[in-house]
Structure formats: structure tokens, C-alpha cells
Amino acid sequence: MKNSKVKGLIGLLVLLFAVGLFGFFGYDTMDDIKLGLDLAGGVSITYQAVEENPTSEEMSDTIYKLQQRVQNYSTEAAVYQEGNNRINIDIPGVSDANAILEELGKPGSLIFTDETGKTILTGDQVASAKAGIIEQNGQKSYVVSLTFTEEGTKAFADATSANVGKRIAIIYDNQIYSNPVVREAITGGQCQIDGMTDYNEAENLAATIRIGSLSLELQELRSNVVGAQLGQQAISTSLKAGAIGFAIVAVFMMVVYLIPGVAAVIALALYVGLVLIMLTAFDVTLTLPGVAGIILSVGMAVDANVIIFTRIKEEIGLGHSVKSAIKAGFSKALSAILDGNITTLIAAAVLYFRGSGTVKGFASTLAIGIVLSMFTALFITKAPVRFICSRL
Questions:
Q1: Whole-model pTM?
Q2: Are residues 270 and 16 in contact, defined by beta-carbon separation less than 8 angstroms?
Q3: N or C, where is the chain less crowded by C-beta within 10 Å?
Q4: Three-state DSSP state, 357
Q5: Of 5, 27, 54, nearest in space to 326 by CA
Q6: May I ask the CATH architecture of the domain 110-211?
Q7: What digits encode the pLDDT tens for the residues 43-80?
């Protein structure tokens, strides 16, 4: 039994050493944590549809179009709907709002070309594009069904008649989105594009084709540039708040719970290191609310330890030995810890899937923190507590 306790403590020390080593040699990696608009600075723009009641399809197509555009500026850019007719765009790391507004306001260029690069059809000659699923012999295939205008029907009929067995590329903003082979001449004004691996791929292609002739007009409501200096001040202030909060919690745990409190502080230090590693590993964009989520989760990590130590105290008060009290404390605290953290995790999931922008940042870091807090409280704290108490 003693050997298992020693092995557990050695394993914990190795883990602490590994996290510390990563923090030292992976310093540049930590600098690569993606920062949101409020921390890195950048441009924030809000558009409103000129049409009073745009359809949900028009709004989703417009958002998809803008997403394709803003990726040229930053892979961390966020485009999301606000209300029924507004679209917000956050682009971190850039500062030229005028150039971005000019670029985003362009209608976009959708063309169909043959293998020689000759334009045979334009986006305004496509009346509709819908993603669909066809099932044959028990197997599903994902397709995009196109309907052309009267002018487009004639142009497409001529093009497909001349290019049977050849490819026709669908290009939006100089990027090829599909390059299907023409199997036969299509003269009826309708066709299907197949070969997609899933429905999302088919829907993205359909949306790309639709935005080539998008009629929804947007007007700029507001735009502002968030300075990088403000972001640096926010990071500095948040780090100070986090350090002060960690120190106060550490002192509280050691004063109130003595030796078990020391074990909790060790687990808490490991928890902070693991959170930073997870932010890098999962490519999470860190925002100011996200930092608040991390600081909040530090308190939740301690809360689990408080429940465990209170249970241990109760068991000792009932006359049980220290060894059995520790075992019973961790066992009896498990259900309370799981119940509390799982309900919070559900709330974080709802915020992530239903929220937008910085709300998602808060939900992401909170969820990561909850999972890691349960891990450190239930598994990391246990080894030093059992080892130290066995030596008393």
C-alpha cells in the first residue's frame, strides 16, 4: 500500500515537472494562444439589411459570404447574426477599417468556367441552388440541385453540349469550390452536382452558388477600431487579478485546511498549467470574458477541494481513522462534485451553442476549466493528501 502511495506521489511530481517544462520551453507556444478582438485589437463592424424582413436563407447566405471574405484578413475573425437583420463582424489583429469596409461591400464574383478557363456562366444566371440527399439502393448521396434563369438555361445547355466528358469549374472570388465532370448535355434548365462527402459540404457549395447572385443589400450601422494597447492593458490587468486571486485562495486553503490545503494548492498550480496547455492544444481564441471564465473556474476548482476536505473532517469527527476518513471523504464527495460541475457544464454548452462572439469565448474557457477542475480535485489532490497523512 505504501509503495502505491509513493508511486502516486512520484507520478504527480513527474506530471508537475512535465507541465513546468512545457511552460519553460513552450513559452513561444503560449504566446501563440489566439487572442480575440478585445485583447489583440482589431476592427468591429455591424451591418444591417436594407430590406426590413430578410429571410433566414438570405441572412445565412450573407453571413457565409462575409465569412469567406474576412478569412483573407484573419482566420480568427468572427461573423455572427444579431437579431433578425443585423450582422456583426469582429476581425482581430487588423486596424484599417476603411479598406475592410470597401472589400466587404463588394458583391463578389461567381463564374462557371470550362477547362480552358473561358467563362460560360455567371452567378446572376442561377435562379436557385439547394442542397439535398438522394438515396439509392440503401446508399445516400449528397447533391446540389441548380435551377437556371431563362438566359442561364440556354448558356448552360450550350456549354454542357460542348463539354461532355470534361469539367466545368465553379469559382467564387478566384477560388474553385467545385469542379464536376459533365456527363451529358443539360438542356432543361436544371442539373445536379454530386460527389459531396456529407450534407454540410453540399450546403456550403449551394450557399456559395447562391451568394453569387445575392440580392440582399447591407448598410453599415457602425464600425470601430479597438486599439491593441487597450488589449494589452486588459491582459495585464487580468493577469494581476488572476495572480492575486490565486494567492488569496492558496493562503485561505493552507490556513483553513493546513496539510490538505497544501495538497490542494499543488493541484491548483497544476490546474492553471493544464488550462494554458489546453488553450493552445484546442486552438481556443481567448477573449476578455474568456479570461474571466478561467479565473471563475479557479474558484470552482477550489470548491471541489473544499467539499472533499469537509467530508474528511466529518469522517474524522465520527471517530474514523485518517486513512479511512480520506478514502470515505473522496468517495462521498464524488456525487456532489459531479452534480455541481455537470450542471455548470450544461450551462456552458448552452452558452457556446446559442451564444455568439465573446460569449462563446467565456463558455469555451469555462468548460475547459470545469473538466480540468474535476480532474485535479478528484485525482491530483488525492495522491499528496494520502502520502503526507500516512507520514504523520
A1: 0.54
A2: yes
A3: C
A4: coil
A5: 5
A6: 2-Layer Sandwich (3.30)
A7: 888 888 888 788 887 788 788 778 777 776 765 677 88
Domain ranges of the chain: 2-37+227-390, 44-105, 110-211
Q: What is the pLDDT of residues 283-317, one digit of tens each?
A: 677 777 777 777 777 777 777 778 888 888 788 78
CATH second-level architecture of 44-105? 2-Layer Sandwich (3.30)
pLDDT at position 272: 77
Strands 86-92 and 42-49: antiparallel
Is a pLDDT exceeding 60 seen at residue 248? yes
Distances (CA, A) of 298 to 227, 245, 294, 337, 359: 29, 9, 6, 15, 19
Please state, in angstroms and rounded to a whole number, the distance separating the CA atoms of residues 251 and 60.
51
Q: Which residue, 54, 99, 73, 48, is CA-closest to 214?
A: 54
- For residue 54, the SS3 value is coil
- β-sheet bridge partners, residue 212: none
d(CA 267, CA 287): 25
CB atoms within 10 A of CB 216: 17
pLDDT at 239 over 60: yes
Rounded Cα gap, residues 334 and 344, in angstroms: 16
Residue 179: exposure state from Cβ atoms within 10 A (0-12, 13-18, ≥19) = middle
Residue 116 confidence (pLDDT) above 70: yes
CATH H-level, domain 2-37+227-390: superfamily? Multidrug efflux transporter AcrB transmembrane domain (1.20.1640.10)
CA distances from 388 to 16, 326, 381, 384 (A): 17, 12, 11, 6
- Stretch 77-95: mean pLDDT: 80
